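This protein record is not my work; I was only asked to verify it. Where you disagree with what is written, explain briefly why. This is what I was given:
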Amino acid sequence: MASVNRVILIGNLGRDPEMRYLPGGDAVATFSVATSEQWKDKNGNKQERTDWHRVEFIGRTAEVCGEYLKKGSPVYIEGRIQYDKWTDKEGVERTMTKIRGDRMQMLGGRPSGGSDAAFDGGRDDSSTHSVHDSAESVRRSNPAPAGKAIANDLADDIPF
Protein backbone atom coordinates (compact mmCIF):
# COMPACT_ATOMS: atom_id res chain seq x y z
CA MET A 1 0.00 0.00 0.00
CA ALA A 2 1.30 3.46 -0.89
CA SER A 3 1.67 6.15 1.76
CA VAL A 4 2.09 9.92 1.80
CA ASN A 5 3.79 12.20 4.31
CA ARG A 6 3.25 15.73 2.98
CA VAL A 7 2.77 19.00 4.85
CA ILE A 8 1.88 22.45 3.53
CA LEU A 9 2.12 25.44 5.87
CA ILE A 10 1.34 29.09 5.27
CA GLY A 11 2.23 31.26 8.24
CA ASN A 12 4.65 33.74 9.77
CA LEU A 13 8.11 33.16 11.21
CA GLY A 14 8.19 33.35 14.99
CA ARG A 15 11.91 34.17 15.07
CA ASP A 16 14.86 34.66 12.75
CA PRO A 17 16.23 31.38 11.34
CA GLU A 18 18.92 29.74 13.45
CA MET A 19 21.83 28.63 11.26
CA ARG A 20 24.31 25.80 11.78
CA TYR A 21 26.45 23.66 9.50
CA LEU A 22 26.82 19.88 9.22
CA PRO A 23 30.30 18.30 9.22
CA GLY A 24 30.05 17.95 5.43
CA GLY A 25 29.48 21.71 5.10
CA ASP A 26 25.72 21.69 4.37
CA ALA A 27 23.80 24.56 5.94
CA VAL A 28 20.87 23.84 8.29
CA ALA A 29 18.24 26.51 8.99
CA THR A 30 15.80 25.99 11.84
CA PHE A 31 12.90 28.30 12.67
CA SER A 32 9.33 28.30 13.93
CA VAL A 33 6.25 29.10 11.86
CA ALA A 34 2.92 30.16 13.37
CA THR A 35 -0.36 29.18 11.73
CA SER A 36 -3.67 30.53 13.02
CA GLU A 37 -7.33 29.71 12.62
CA GLN A 38 -10.34 31.76 13.65
CA TRP A 39 -13.94 30.77 14.34
CA LYS A 40 -17.01 31.83 16.26
CA ASP A 41 -18.12 29.80 19.26
CA LYS A 42 -21.73 28.91 20.16
CA ASN A 43 -22.23 32.36 21.70
CA GLY A 44 -20.96 34.16 18.60
CA ASN A 45 -17.68 35.18 20.23
CA LYS A 46 -14.64 35.24 18.00
CA GLN A 47 -12.06 32.58 18.94
CA GLU A 48 -8.53 32.13 17.66
CA ARG A 49 -5.97 29.35 17.93
CA THR A 50 -2.31 29.61 16.95
CA ASP A 51 -0.16 26.52 16.39
CA TRP A 52 3.64 26.66 16.27
CA HIS A 53 5.60 24.40 13.93
CA ARG A 54 9.33 23.71 14.05
CA VAL A 55 10.71 23.81 10.49
CA GLU A 56 14.14 22.68 9.27
CA PHE A 57 15.77 23.07 5.86
CA ILE A 58 19.10 21.60 4.77
CA GLY A 59 21.36 22.69 1.90
CA ARG A 60 20.96 25.62 -0.46
CA THR A 61 17.39 26.36 0.63
CA ALA A 62 18.64 26.65 4.22
CA GLU A 63 21.18 29.25 3.09
CA VAL A 64 18.42 31.26 1.38
CA CYS A 65 16.24 31.01 4.51
CA GLY A 66 19.07 32.27 6.70
CA GLU A 67 19.81 35.18 4.42
CA TYR A 68 16.33 36.41 3.52
CA LEU A 69 13.80 35.28 6.16
CA LYS A 70 13.27 37.33 9.29
CA LYS A 71 10.95 37.19 12.29
CA GLY A 72 7.39 37.94 11.13
CA SER A 73 8.06 37.05 7.46
CA PRO A 74 5.05 35.43 5.77
CA VAL A 75 6.12 32.14 4.19
CA TYR A 76 4.80 29.08 2.33
CA ILE A 77 6.47 25.79 3.29
CA GLU A 78 6.19 22.32 1.78
CA GLY A 79 7.78 19.32 3.46
CA ARG A 80 7.16 16.23 5.55
CA ILE A 81 6.63 15.45 9.22
CA GLN A 82 9.65 13.94 10.89
CA TYR A 83 9.97 12.58 14.43
CA ASP A 84 13.37 12.60 16.12
CA LYS A 85 14.15 10.54 19.26
CA TRP A 86 17.23 10.79 21.46
CA THR A 87 18.36 10.30 25.02
CA ASP A 88 19.55 13.43 26.84
CA LYS A 89 22.49 13.72 29.24
CA GLU A 90 20.31 12.71 32.19
CA GLY A 91 19.22 9.51 30.41
CA VAL A 92 15.70 10.77 29.65
CA GLU A 93 14.30 9.76 26.27
CA ARG A 94 13.17 12.82 24.32
CA THR A 95 11.14 13.23 21.15
CA MET A 96 10.71 16.16 18.81
CA THR A 97 8.33 16.68 15.92
CA LYS A 98 9.47 18.90 13.07
CA ILE A 99 8.72 19.70 9.47
CA ARG A 100 11.62 18.81 7.19
CA GLY A 101 11.19 21.38 4.44
CA ASP A 102 11.53 20.62 0.73
CA ARG A 103 10.27 23.89 -0.72
CA MET A 104 9.99 27.46 0.58
CA GLN A 105 8.27 30.47 -0.93
CA MET A 106 8.50 33.93 0.55
CA LEU A 107 5.11 35.65 0.54
CA GLY A 108 4.15 39.30 0.64
CA GLY A 109 6.63 40.51 -1.96
CA ARG A 110 9.99 42.16 -1.65
CA PRO A 111 10.31 45.37 0.37
CA SER A 112 10.80 47.19 -2.96
CA GLY A 113 7.36 46.00 -4.11
CA GLY A 114 8.46 42.98 -6.17
CA SER A 115 6.57 39.71 -6.36
CA ASP A 116 6.65 36.52 -4.30
CA ALA A 117 9.66 34.27 -4.83
CA ALA A 118 9.98 30.50 -4.56
CA PHE A 119 13.02 28.39 -3.78
CA ASP A 120 12.95 24.63 -4.04
CA GLY A 121 16.63 23.87 -3.60
CA GLY A 122 17.18 23.45 -7.32
CA ARG A 123 15.03 20.34 -7.81
CA ASP A 124 14.94 19.20 -11.42
CA ASP A 125 11.20 18.90 -11.84
CA SER A 126 9.45 19.84 -15.05
CA SER A 127 6.49 21.24 -13.09
CA THR A 128 8.73 23.59 -11.07
CA HIS A 129 10.58 26.42 -12.78
CA SER A 130 13.92 27.47 -11.41
CA VAL A 131 13.95 30.40 -9.05
CA HIS A 132 16.04 32.56 -11.37
CA ASP A 133 13.74 31.81 -14.35
CA SER A 134 10.67 32.74 -12.29
CA ALA A 135 12.20 36.02 -11.09
CA GLU A 136 13.37 36.86 -14.60
CA SER A 137 9.92 36.21 -16.08
CA VAL A 138 8.34 38.44 -13.43
CA ARG A 139 10.81 41.23 -14.27
CA ARG A 140 10.04 40.90 -17.99
CA SER A 141 6.26 40.85 -17.51
CA ASN A 142 6.24 43.73 -14.99
CA PRO A 143 8.77 46.28 -16.20
CA ALA A 144 9.91 48.62 -13.44
CA PRO A 145 9.11 52.33 -13.51
CA ALA A 146 12.13 54.46 -14.38
CA GLY A 147 12.86 55.20 -10.71
CA LYS A 148 13.07 51.49 -9.84
CA ALA A 149 15.52 50.45 -12.57
CA ILE A 150 18.44 50.54 -10.13
CA ALA A 151 16.59 48.30 -7.64
CA ASN A 152 15.96 45.72 -10.38
CA ASP A 153 19.66 45.73 -11.34
CA LEU A 154 20.54 44.97 -7.71
CA ALA A 155 17.95 42.16 -7.63
CA ASP A 156 20.07 40.16 -10.07
CA ASP A 157 22.31 39.21 -7.14
CA ILE A 158 19.39 37.70 -5.22
CA PRO A 159 18.88 33.98 -5.94
CA PHE A 160 15.11 34.26 -6.45
User: Anything to note?
Assistant: The CA atoms of residues 22 and 92 lie 25 Å apart.
